[in-house]
From TrEMBL:
<dbReference type="InterPro" id="IPR011719">
    <property type="entry name" value="CHP02058"/>
</dbReference>
<keyword id="KW-0547">Nucleotide-binding</keyword>
<dbReference type="InterPro" id="IPR037103">
    <property type="entry name" value="Tubulin/FtsZ-like_C"/>
</dbReference>
<dbReference type="Pfam" id="PF09585">
    <property type="entry name" value="Lin0512_fam"/>
</dbReference>
<protein>
    <submittedName>
        <fullName>Lin0512 family protein</fullName>
    </submittedName>
</protein>
<keyword id="KW-0342">GTP-binding</keyword>
Length: 113
């Protein structure tokens, strides 16, 4: 039996001042989570701890994201986090600042027949 994708949810998050890529990533994950409901898991009597959760974060500086903090922010499942080049940086040259925009995709897989 192989795990099948049953949920795909996307979100966006930002840090408007300070260029904190992890903060933007965490906000993107929370945005995605707030668009989702796990009622299907209850209906199928699936233990949420067993679902496979794959998080992909897109930011302009992937190495600046603390993937372990992102992983710890997910409430259920066996979580993996991958950070890739994406998102958007919006510089404010007048204030030597940058607004960071992160994208998040959360995939949930279940072992189904």
């Amino acid at each position: 039996m192989s795990a099948r994708r049953v949920i795909l949810e996307m979100g966006a998050g930002n840090d408007l001042h300070g260029g904190d890529y992890t903060k933007a990533a965490l906000r993107a994950v929370q945005d995605a989570l707030h668009h989702s409901s796990l009622s299907m898991l209850r209906a199928l009597k699936v233990d949420p701890k067993t679902m496979l959760v794959e998080v992909t974060i897109g930011v302009q500086q992937p190495g600046a994201v603390d993937a372990e903090r992102v992983k710890a922010s997910l409430p259920h499942g066996i979580v993996t986090v991958r950070v890739v080049k994406g998102g958007l940086d919006v510089p404010d040259d007048e204030r030597d600042d940058v607004a960071v925009i992160a994208s998040a995709a959360i995939v949930v897989r279940l072992e189904l027949p």
